[in-house]
């Protein structure tokens, strides 16, 4: 779709009675915009600004507003354009949020147009988002606000104070989240110490979850429901290829355990099964084959994919009319099932084969995976081991970054922050997660 078509569709999704207190009135518009920008829906917040004096209040009036790094402000009065831009620029500089301003084409029109917006150049991720906004919605490009690292840190701390958040409160928020993208992203990115501390909190929280899950999959009494409940909301465990979570029931009659969106917009279904499965593999003549429960789970996932292939085009149209831009065809699936440690096949003198080892189970699953298409079988043990290795890598990177920064500070003489500006881009080098 062209920027004009995207903006026209967004206008159709925006509710007409903006000043009425209706719950979830901007959900369709939010979901559509988030899909355009490649963001989870929680990262985008819509608000209606009836007068410019309410701008800063509307943009932080709820937990959802505070959490979202992208604020789309629907501006009512055309007579306050200059004041609106001043307020938006000030809010972007104070909070690090990307502010997109939309305004009706005319007072009696239902169509909305982009009147510009603002983002902070110290955060490279916000610059990418602003470019996507211009690419997909058109209009004048968003204006970058250049501020020094010290200004960014001061503004963020003042912002936390206004919200009543202490240092302990910010730490508590981080410890509850499943990723580092929280209300302190901007402040952490502006300071090496802040970034290192924030990463440490998140990594520790995730490692604690992995350790608990490993204890659970080692317990024969743990059920599939227990694992599903524990893993809910922590979809980072499956890797960094995913940008969000879809609704559990996309096709009629089918309900998925964890439907994830890939970066290209396609769907990846994760089907969770229990960890205590003694017949994960079984003997067949002189060899090993996957057990019946593995085959059943794979066929369950394969049927989900077949239904999406056959009815995806129709359902895409239905969801698109509701503001949800799904790409349902040619999806993939992962089945998480079993734990190699529960496989206990002793030596068989009749067949003249020895006891089954973990490496033999791994080889059997690799053989099985190599013969099926678009569905992968993964054990709980392998999933958690991979997640644990990823966390160790992140921890090493964070420690190295912190040590390098401390070394640089110890070796350098005090200097003005402008000396840290990259000569080619004119922007401070920063790492954003």
- Helix content range: 40-55%
In percent, how much strand structure appears in the residues?
Answer: 15-25%
Global Rg:
25 Å
| Tally of contiguous helical segments | 14
- Mean of pLDDT: 79
> N- to C-terminal separation?
29 Å
Number of strands: 12
Structure class: alpha/beta
Biggest sheet descriptor:
5 strands, mixed
Tell me, briefly, the overall form.
Answer: elongated
Can you describe what's shown?
The chain is an alpha/beta fold and 433 residues long. Helix content is 46%, strand content 16%. The strands form three sheets. The protein has a five-stranded mixed beta sheet, with helices on both faces. The relative contact order is 0.09. Residues 179-192 and 412-433 have low confidence and may be disordered.
List the helices and strands and how they pair.
Layout: H1 3-13, H2 27-37, E1 44-49, H3 55-58, H4 63-67, E2 70-75, H5 81-95, E3 98-104, E4 112-120, H6 124-137, E5 143-145, H7 149-162, H8 167-176, H9 185-189, H10 192-217, H11 224-231, E6 242-245, E7 258-262, E8 266-272, E9 281-284, E10 287-290, H12 292-321, E11 327-336, H13 358-371, E12 375-378, H14 380-411
Parallel strand pairs: 1-2, 2-3, 4-5, 8-11, 11-12
Antiparallel strand pairs: 3-4, 6-7, 7-8, 9-10
């Amino acid at each position: 779709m062209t920027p004009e078509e995207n903006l026209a569709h967004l206008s159709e999704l925006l509710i007409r009675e903006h000043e009425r207190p209706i719950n979830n009135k901007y959900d369709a518009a939010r979901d559509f915009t988030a899909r355009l920008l490649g963001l989870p829906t929680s990262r985008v917040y819509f608000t209606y600004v009836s007068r410019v004096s309410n701008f800063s209040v509307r943009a932080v009036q709820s937990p959802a507003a505070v959490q979202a790094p992208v604020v789309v402000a629907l501006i009512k009065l055309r007579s306050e354009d200059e004041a609106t831009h001043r307020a938006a620029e000030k809010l972007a500089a104070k909070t690090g949020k990307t502010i997109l301003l939309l305004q009706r084409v005319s007072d009696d029109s239902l169509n909305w147009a982009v009147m510009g917006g603002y983002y902070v150049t110290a955060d490279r991720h916000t610059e990418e988002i602003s470019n996507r906004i211009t690419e997909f919605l058109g209009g004048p490009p968003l204006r970058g606000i250049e501020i020094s690292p010290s200004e960014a840190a001061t503004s963020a701390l003042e912002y936390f104070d206004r919200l009543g958040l202490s240092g302990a409160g910010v730490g508590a928020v981080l410890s509850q989240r499943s990723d580092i993208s929280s209300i302190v992203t901007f402040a952490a990115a502006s300071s090496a110490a802040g970034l290192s501390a924030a990463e440490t909190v998140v990594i520790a929280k995730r490692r604690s979850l992995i350790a608990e899950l490993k204890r659970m999959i080692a317990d024969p009494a743990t059920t599939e429901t227990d694992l599903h409940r524990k893993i809910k909301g922590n979809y980072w465990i499956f890797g960094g290829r995913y940008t969000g979570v879809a609704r559990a029931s996309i096709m009629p009659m089918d309900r998925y355990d964890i439907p994830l969106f890939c970066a290209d917009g396609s769907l990846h279904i994760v089907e969770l099964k229990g960890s205590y499965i003694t017949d994960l593999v079984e003997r067949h003549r002189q060899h090993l084959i996957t057990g019946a429960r593995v085959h059943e789970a794979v066929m369950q996932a394969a049927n989900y994919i077949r239904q999406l292939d056959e009815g995806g085009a129709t359902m895409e149209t239905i969801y698109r009319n509701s503001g949800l831009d799904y790409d349902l065809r040619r999806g993939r699936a992962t089945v998480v099932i079993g734990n190699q440690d529960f496989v206990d096949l002793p030596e068989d003198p009749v067949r003249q084969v020895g006891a089954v080892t973990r490496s033999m189970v791994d080889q059997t699953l690799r053989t099985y995976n190599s013969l099926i298409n678009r569905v992968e079988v993964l054990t709980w043990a392998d999933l958690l081991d991979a997640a644990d290795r990823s966390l160790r890598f992140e921890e090493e990177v964070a420690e190295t970054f912190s040590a390098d920064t401390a070394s640089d500070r110890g070796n350098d003489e005090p200097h003005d922050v402008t000396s840290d500006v990259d000569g080619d881009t004119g922007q401070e080098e920063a790492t954003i997660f």
